[in-house]
Protein: Glycosyltransferase 2-like domain-containing protein
Organism: Bosea vaviloviae
Amino acid sequence: MDLRMLTAVIRADGPPSLLAATFAVLIPAVADGFLGHAVVVDATGDREVERLADATGASYLRTGAAEGWHLGAAQARGDWLLLLDAGDAPQSHWAQVVDRHLMLAPDSPALIPLRGVAGSLRERAAISFGARRLRAGLVVPKGLVLAGRLGGAPRRLSVRRERAGA
């Protein structure tokens, strides 16, 4: 297996349209062979979310929000994970930026930060005050997610993500 192949773990706790927006952005990375698998972790049990996951070939788990990242990681096929919330939409060149990070710093987590001042400030504060918690936007080795923590502060990548409905 290519160590740089990612699995997207997507927490879905809103309307199916948010999940559809995230899938629409991820499809080019699937076509390029960079994103090999997706796991949808659904905290609401919405049948439409389950149908959408099935239609895209993603694995589907119904679970509580608190355990989402961990259970999604356990189902992941790749050694690296992209953690997203439904509605997250990384910029169009995100895969190239992440691929470069994985080539240059293959053991280090990274963050695709939110676009905009408020989201960026929250993420910077979390990193500055030593928060090593799992959160949306991380590109992280599967083992760290299974352990429930980051080994160190993630490197902020030059690409951004937006959140639909925010």
Notes: Residues 6-163 form a domain with the Spore Coat Polysaccharide Biosynthesis Protein SpsA; Chain A fold (CATH 3.90.550.10). The chain has a mean pLDDT of 85. The helical segments are 16-31, 47-56, 68-75, 94-104, 117-128, 142-147.
